[in-house]
Amino acid sequence: MDIVCLDMEGVLVPEIWIAFSEATGIPELRRTTRDEPDYDKLMKWRLGILKEHGLGLKEIQETIAGIDPLPGAKQFLDALRERTQVLILSDTFTQFAMPLMKKLGYPTLLCNTLVVADNGEITDYKMRCTNSKLTTVKALQSIGYDTIASGDSFNDLAMIQAGKAGFLFRTTDQIRKDYPDIPAFEEFDDLLKAILDVLS
Description:
Blueprint: E1 2-6, H1 16-24, H2 39-53, H3 57-64, H4 73-83, E2 85-93, H5 94-103, E3 108-116, E4 122-126, H6 132-142, E5 146-151, H7 157-162, E6 165-169, H8 173-178, E7 184-185, H9 188-199
Parallel strand pairs: 1-2, 1-5, 2-3, 5-6, 6-7
Antiparallel strand pairs: 3-4
Helix pairs in contact: 3-5, 4-9
């Protein structure tokens, strides 16, 4: 049995924090897991910036409401789901992701959750589990699944390397250079073909 595990931001939808950075004019919020491998460090830094500017969940959700999946993402996902089971494994948060999941036809998503005060301030976050993407892939393998994974960032590399096959998608030049052994694609059609070749 095969199961495909996909990252969400940068692969299926635009980076939420980059969109919010552009909406607010705060350039520091453009930093993502493509730039900072330590997710805990990145999130604490983000929460500090939000607090400094008096921004909370409401403002971020207003930005998310205007975000659409990347062109071709839903068609890619639909084609893939006709052939195999697909899980979205993301370090995003349920409070961010659900409007985007609706636009993608409600694929199964495993992600984290935010701790939000009554006034809407994001005070903390709860990770679903440690090293959530790799931990999930290993758990799937322990119950008889062969995993095929794709992502674009540092936090996707472990799940990509741990499975039967793995692919980079629209990644950075640096990651592509540092991991030349991982096939890298820029177009959904090419990624779909590569995954279907593994499945066949």
